Amino acid sequence: MVMKPSPKMLLKIEDLSVYYDKHQALKNIKLSVRANGITALMGPSGCGKSTFLRAINRMHELYDSIRLEGSIRLESHDIDLLASNTPVEWVRTHIGMVFQKPNPFPKTIFENVAYGLKIQGVTNKTELEDKVQKALESAGLWKEAKDRLQKNAFTLSGGQQQRLCIARALAPQPEVLLMDEPTSALDPVSTQVIEELIMSLCEEMSIVLVTHNMHQARRVSNDVAFLYLGELLENGTTEEVFANPKHETTRSYLLGSIG
Amino acid sequence: MKALISSQQRRAKIYARIFVTAAFAVLGLSLLVLVLLFADLVMQGLPRLSTAFLTSFPSRFPEQAGILSAWVGSLCVVLLCMLFAIPVGIATAVYLEEYMNKSWYNSWIEICLGNLAGVPSIIYGLMALGLFVYQFDLGASVLTAGLTLSLLVLPIVIVSARESIRNVPDNLKEAAYALGASKLQMLRHHQIPYAQSGIFTGVILSLSRALGETAPLLTIGALTFIAFLPQTPFQDTFPWINFNWLGDPYTVLPIQLFNWTSRPQTEFHQNAAAASLILVTLTVLLNLTAIVLRNRSRRKYQW
Fold it and tell me: I need a surface site. Which of A25, B49, B157, B233 has the fewest CB within 10 A?
């Protein structure tokens, strides 16, 4: 790990449950996420990692059959993200998201990065250009993209597309960045680039990273949370959990005998 | 020598070859029929084609008769039809696909739309006669014809628009939502633009259908002989534009054609062939425009 994470907590998740119709996919999760740190959610497929992540920026609201309970407090604003009087647009401009498969819009590179700003009403051209450049720089894509900002995003390689998606999420300057297995569709070289990028980004925001690759969790994260069949079995600093897992299932997972 | 493949596999290969040959033969046959028909049309009609034919009104004398009122009428009616059908069709498709609950009621509407697309056009004509001509008192006007044809093509536009709206990948929609876009913004900036090329395909289909339609227009009182044009929409005084032409009587190319082929004199049959050539050309031109528009949006938004 590169830097010492701050001890301050930014997200406080209390009693979070998620239901798909009758099926309970997450059971009373309680977890705090540090400001300026990387929290990795790990666990075998179907354990509820993505469900958990998508609860934080309320993506589940797009689908009728999913129901949420509990609260997720964003401490910097002292606001409950899940409260019905918190506008979902506000939540999503403060909490950015990067998806598993690179999903740039079929538009130009510039338009992709500028989109989040545009829907917030930024129209000033120089401001847009500045912020787009800054976001692309933070995502480590500026050098490669600066001469082709008006090209379609699909002319980029897979790894570049994922960094573009990261830049797109960074442009509105979110306080939390949610990443849903951002490297699972990428080759090892692109994966390494993105992992280094993630570690540099946590200086300015807190990152929640879903991964089913425990080696990745070990490489990049400060804290880990281990989910199993919808329950949070164990969480703590990465060092602690990897060196001395308290729960038997966690130990088996880390040894590779389950998962 | 031992065979490398079993007799079963060998037979499958032979069948595959027979199937491809048969498919190719059927394709050739239908193309041949098309070419023959078109050649016949060209041979009969081409000598009759001239600028005078395009710029004259119909007449009792076959050599003086032209199709001015017919092609102008066709253009007016089809444009009007598209003007109604495209926005209403897209709005309906968006509502059904993105806003309405996915209940049995929704799928029932979808089935009904499919059925409506297959209803004989004369039924639309009869309904329009009762609704637009008598109930709304619009008379035998360009407006009535445009509305009738737009009802006729609406199911095609809706079904194809809905299909292409549905085909926009969820992950692009989620990307927009994750940046804080509202539903309307997501639809306006992403889903509808990305579905554009598919929507155009439906429009192309319905355009051709509207242009060739005769039966419903006969029942709502399209004229078979008309020697004047709808009024021009432009005027010298403010606001420099008027919509009086919407209330004017009209005829369309297929009706003019039908009229000429039903006459005994062979000269009129030549006129009909020439008019068909124009109708075919007009259809191809309108389709080409739509295809160019579609390909442009397809190039712009590809994933």
Answer: B233
Residue B214, strand partner residues: none
A115 interaction partners in chain B (CB closer than 8 Å): 176, 179, 181, 189
Structure tokens at B257: 């054609």
Which chain B residue shows the shortest CA-CA distance from A172? B179
> Residue A12 and residue A30: Cα distance in Å, rounded?
8
* B13 in contact with chain A, both atoms CB, cutoff 8 A: no
- The CATH architecture assigned to A9-103+178-254 reads 3-Layer(aba) Sandwich (3.40)
State residue A94's pLDDT score: 93
CB contact under 8 A, B302 and A152: yes
A59:B177 CB<8 A: yes
Distance between A199 CA and the closest CA of chain B, angstroms: 22
**Side-chain half-sphere exposure of A217, counting CA atoms within 13 A:** 29
Domains of chain A: which residue ranges?
A: 9-103+178-254
pLDDT band at B184 (very low <50, low <70, confident <90, very high): very high
Average pLDDT, chain B: 85
B242 vs B127, more confident: B127
* B109 neighbors B215 (Cβ within 8 angstroms): no
Average pLDDT over residues B258-273: 84
Distance from CA of A50 to the nearest CA of B (A): 14
Mean pLDDT of chain A: 90
Model pLDDT for residues A82-133, shown as the tens digit of each residue: 998 999 999 999 999 999 999 999 999 999 999 999 998 898 999 999 999 9
Say if residue B81 is exposed, middle or buried (CB neighbours under 10 Å; 0-12, 13-18, 19+): buried
Q: Are A78 and B147 in contact (CB under 8 A)?
A: no
Q: What percent of chain B has pLDDT over 70?
A: 96
Contact state of A105 with B180 under an 8 Å Cβ cutoff: no
CA separation for the pair B177, B172 (Å, rounded): 9
Segments in B51-167 forming alpha helices (H): 51-55, 68-94, 104-118, 121-128, 142-166
pLDDT in tens, A10-53: 999 999 999 998 899 999 999 999 888 899 999 888 888 999 99
Which sign does the torsion angle of CA B118, B123, B128, B130 carry? negative
Residues in A touching B99 (Cβ below 8 Å): none
Of A90, A99, A152, nearest to B175 by CB-CB distance is: A99
Say if B40 is an interface residue toward chain A (CB within 8 Å). no
8 Å CB contact of A57 and B302: no
Other C-beta atoms closer than 10 Å to the C-beta of A75 total 15
CB burial readout B264-280, b (16+ within 10 A) else e: eeeebbbbbbbbbbbbb
CB–CB of B179 and A172 under 8 A? yes
Residue B3 has pLDDT above 70, yes or no: yes
pLDDT at B178: 94
Per-window interface: B 80-119 vs A, CB < 8 A: 101-102
Tokens of B177: 């939502």
Q: Are B140 and B69 in contact (CB under 8 A)?
A: no
Residue among A64, A99, A116 whose CB faces B180 most closely:
A116
Q: Predicted ipTM?
A: 0.91
